[in-house]
Amino acid sequence: FLYNILSAFGFGPLLGMAAVPTAEIQKYEGSFFSFIKGVLGGDLQTLAGGPLFLLLAVYYKKYGPVFNLAFGPKSFLIVNDPVMAKHILKSNVDAYDKGVLAEILEPIMGKGLIPADPETWKVRRRVIVPGFHKKWLNTMVTLFADCGDRLNDDIEQVVKRGNAVEMEERFCSVSLDIIGKAVFNYDFGSVQKESPVVKAVYRTLREAEHRSLSVIPYWNLPYADKWMEGQVEFSKDMGMLDDILADLINGCIKTRKEASVEELEERDNSDDPSLLRFLVDMRDEDLSSKQLRDDLMTMLIAGHETTAAVLTWTLFELSRGDPRMLEDIQDEIDEVMKGKSRPDYDDIVAMKKLRMALIESLRLYPEPPILIRRALKDDVLPAGGSNLKNGIKVLKGSDIFISTWNLHRSKELWGEDAEIFDPTRWDRNFANGDVEGWEGYNAENVRGLYPNEIASDFSFLPFGGGQRKCVGDQFAVMEATVVMAMLLQKFEFTFTGNAEDVGMRTGATIHTMNGLNMIPREKGSRTLTLRGEGGDRGGYWAEKNGRNG
Ligand code: HEM
Questions:
Q1: What ipTM did this prediction achieve?
Q2: pLDDT at 50
Q3: 380 three-state secondary structure
Q4: Mutation choice for ligand 1 from 298, 470, 509, CB with most ligand atoms inside 8 A
């Protein structure tokens, strides 16, 4: 009990739980008062006086590629440099694990891929990756379109009634329906209705986010699930989801038809194309239902609000930018789709402007905005863009935040227009940075559906990098392209108020503060109003693309 209370208030290091990091010491400049308020409020957001990644952005401008952030006895090394990020995520990956993140997520995801310790991770990653094979991804395109149809039907009703609609919430529903079917063949049906199960999923996600922002591991307090407000409900929700997953897993095991990976890839799986089916049918696989439960729960959480956030911020940026940017993308959709209402894989490949808009939104709003690691042994980070030519010493136990938000918005890496939403930047080459080892991004090097961390030499980490990189990257890009193409083919949107009203709040992903409240109309019915001609972002985009007047 004492251990929990002390570690709750950050005194773990005194108990030998973790060593306090070294390196550059730049003191957190928040007042003692704000620290106490943060501790009492129980979350880092309060502590930081706003989303933590925004506080880190202020310090990045002041202190550069690497600095230490200390909240009282807690301390984090903040890395904002592609060379250091590459070292941690790829070159010396065995020296790091997920640290704080794993501690927080373990009670929810168990030994699923995200929090998994290196030994479990090695085994499970090898089992899960084949499930994302090409034929399966192709089948998924049909599922994306089915769910896109549901969303469009729903928006159609809103248009008829002349109402406004909260699009962030709709995107969350559509991505929940997709991930439920894709991962365990369960139809949440959340676009149409909000069931107790859907509510339980959302409350679980909110709790996971609250935990990740908390400086006090309140959930570890003795019997918290029996008496603590929120925890009692959380444990009921988890119980409900666990029961559903157990039924699905047991049902699948009962109808198991063992086969090799190659046979499974060729099998007609139209009845049940889920990853669960694939994992259960895989020959010689250990069918521990606890491990399967952890894998499924992890993918449900990892693949849901991340994609919803990409859709949300893309629609946000396209709706507030120069209307011709959106028009250009809608023209591309019409040209590619040629009157069809459901895209196939080739259409996804052909809709490059749309894909680059989605990717550009992942640059400006990376999900999650911070990657978390802990050093398992002493290490030295390369100097990268810092002036610490001997590198940066990292002691075993140091907690590290890699700020993808800062990397993605760095003027040194992306040029003066780093903070501007401009999907056409991905057609250009820019190697204007002076960071050592940074080769710059070369559009020629891009292979596949999106410019990844390799093409940008770790300056762009939309899906992380190295061996713990996202397993669902292609799935997510395809899903977002299909849903957005179907939506923009039929509708256009205006804000109910000002774009600035949308606001931003942090969680595991970046959420809006007040919702993405939009008025949808049939495409072509809106009067184009050119904002910022020659002035703000609209003028900027037109100038870059030779579109004047
Ligand atoms: C890992 C982002 C969609 C499953 C990650 C990581 C990032 C990420 C940045 C690395 C985390 C780290 O290094 O700490 C995203 C984004 C998505 C998305 C932005 C949507 C746009 C998905 C989907 C799935 C998924 C659809 C599953 C169907 C996973 C899993 C991991 C992961 C299992 C852990 C991989 C490992 O440690 O081996 N994701 N993800 N993600 N993601 Fe995604």
A1: 0.99
A2: 65
A3: strand
A4: 470
